[in-house]
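Incident log, support desk, overnight shift.

02:14 A customer reports that sequence design results differ from what the structure should imply. Their input is reproduced verbatim below. On-call engineer (initials T.W.) acknowledged and began investigating.
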């Protein structure tokens, strides 16, 4: 049986962490023995019941020079003897890579979901040239961005694997936001989802609504460390009455079934999982022109693309869909996502990268 160890020791749950959950589930179903390393007391319940998936909890992720963490990782890896080690978070790259090298693991894959500047050239050189780790990215634009650093990266050690999802059923539980928030039947529900972070651009929501008719409301799903700060900035605006928060949703399917269209107002992304999910439910989308979105929307064929922080443009994009100026048929969106960004394609490419098989 093939073995994979996935490192994701974090106290924050977002798109990257969800990506680890999805890969763990599919690899386990495929018969791979999956071990997920998490911080003690953080998110183990979300992996509960997954086939062939075991959780290893650690007390600390340490820092770049934390030898006790390295020793613990080496001990874990030597006991398991994995075919591949995967580190989902950039802050874990060095410790995981070093521990894997010491433990004799031949295949080390490090995930990058958003463009980063190379600030530690010696560390990057050690990881990608001496230890020979492979960088997995989730969009072609992100791959091209990292290839701008040829001292560390080339076509052989940077691999693009799109995030993938199952094609969801349109039938099933749906959140009735009009009933939930006592809204008139003619209300248009714009969904947005993600952790509260300045990167996600949720502070722009009042300004976007200011440029839209009063029957347009926004419903947000998510949580995050900047929640109080961002909500405070929103609640000080008159448009806040048309912004509704439903918090963290373990299952987002009812959320997506209940909205009319989806908004991504991020300032930076790799490839936003929530945008992929919304389109897989056949929901028209408006997105900022961040890495990955142009590929996902085929440069505007399957959704409206707007420049980052362009509040008026985002409002106009929503208006163009609400008023029928731009139409994106549900069936076409679902087919596009299923064929180009489906879970089976992601798993085939992940297996090829992890184990050299499809």
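02:41 Re-run completed on a clean worker. Output:
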């Amino acid at each position: 049986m093939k073995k994979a160890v996935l490192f994701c020791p974090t106290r924050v749950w977002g798109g990257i962490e969800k990506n680890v959950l999805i890969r763990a589930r599919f690899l386990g179903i495929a018969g791979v023995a999956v071990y997920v390393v998490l911080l003690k007391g953080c998110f183990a319940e979300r992996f509960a019941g997954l086939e062939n998936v075991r959780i290893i909890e650690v007390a600390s992720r340490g820092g770049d020079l934390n030898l006790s963490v390295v020793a613990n990782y080496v001990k874990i890896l030597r006991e398991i003897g994995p075919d591949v080690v995967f580190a989902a978070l950039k802050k874990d790259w060095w410790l995981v890579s070093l521990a894997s090298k010491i433990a004799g693991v031949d295949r080390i894959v490090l995930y990058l979901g958003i463009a980063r500047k190379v600030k530690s050239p010696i560390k990057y050189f050690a990881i990608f040239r001496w230890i020979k780790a492979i960088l997995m990215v989730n969009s072609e634009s992100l791959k091209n961005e990292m290839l701008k650093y040829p001292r560390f990266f080339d076509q052989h050690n940077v691999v693009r694997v799109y995030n993938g999802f199952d094609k969801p059923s349109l039938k099933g539980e749906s959140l009735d936001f009009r009933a939930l928030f006592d809204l008139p039947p003619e209300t248009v529900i714009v969904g947005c989802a993600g952790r509260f972070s300045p990167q996600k651009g949720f502070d722009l929501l009042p300004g976007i609504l200011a440029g839209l008719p009063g029957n347009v409301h926004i419903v947000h799903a998510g949580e995050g460390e900047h929640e109080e700060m961002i909500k405070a900035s929103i609640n000080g605006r008159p448009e806040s009455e048309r912004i509704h928060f439903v918090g963290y949703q373990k299952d987002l399917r009812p959320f997506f079934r209940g909205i009319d269209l989806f908004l991504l107002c991020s300032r930076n992304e790799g490839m936003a999982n929530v945008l992929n999910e919304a389109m897989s439910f056949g929901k028209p989308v408006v997105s900022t022109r961040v890495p990955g979105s142009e590929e996902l929307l085929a440069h505007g064929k399957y959704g409206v693309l707007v420049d980052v922080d362009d509040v008026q443009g985002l409002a106009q994009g929503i208006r163009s869909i609400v008023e029928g100026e731009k139409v994106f048929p549900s069936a076409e969106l679902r087919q596009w996502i299923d064929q180009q960004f489906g879970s089976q394609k992601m798993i085939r490419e992940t297996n090829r990268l992890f184990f050299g098989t499809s």
